[in-house]
Amino acid sequence: MNSSSATSIFSSGALKCHSWITQYLNISRKDITLEELNSVFVLRLLGGITFVSLLAVIGLVGNIHVIYIFGWKFAKSTDYKVFVLWLGWIDIAATSVNAPMLLYYLFKPLTFESDFLCKTFRFLQYLCAICSNCALVVIAINRCLKILRPLRLPTTPITAKRNCGISLVIAVCLSWPAIPLFSVVNSPTGIEGVTVRIF
């Protein structure tokens, strides 16, 4: 198949689920390998791979700056500093652990083999997302109380740390079901004799 016909297939919107593979690869031959199918999927996911890579680099560099500035440049410990550092560490975990695992999956969408890596990836993905959201809810409640009750005693850094710990516990409780629910399974491709392992 030449590049112009491949481009026309991609731009025509004919690529839907597994049915587009047969059109793209001209499935009349019997020697199609799983690696060929995987490489076609990777070509289709190049935009996502580029976007995730860019977000991971920007997020990692930005959050390292946040940790450095709030952790070492500001000596006074406040509830605001605790919350910002907590969000920074969560985002560093997301960009340094979850993003590379997602990129690994995007490069092996059909040949992904590790059940352990699948479960770990999904658990950490949900853990970081839920923990970050819980932390933002805690910050919002803290800000609301400061506005509605300005004369009350301010939240201490110890209370802020306890609230961050509670957000982590809530995140673990809500994300652990990903471990038994997700796994790598065999899936038909619509191509005779070829099945893939996906999660």
TrEMBL record:
Main location: membrane
Keyword Membrane attributed: yes
Source taxon at top rank: Eukaryota
InterPro entries cross-referenced by the UniProt entry: GPCR_Rhodpsn (IPR000276), GPCR_Rhodpsn_7TM (IPR017452)
Single annotated GO MF: G protein-coupled receptor activity
Localisation: Membrane
Membrane-spanning segments: 43-70, 82-103, 123-145, 166-185
GO CC annotation: plasma membrane
Pfam families linked: 7tm_1
Membrane topology: Multi-pass membrane protein
Residue ranges occupied by any G-protein coupled receptors family 1 profile domain in the UniProt entry: 62-199
Keywords noted in UniProt: G-protein coupled receptor, Membrane, Receptor, Transducer, Transmembrane, Transmembrane helix
UniProt protein name: G-protein coupled receptors family 1 profile domain-containing protein
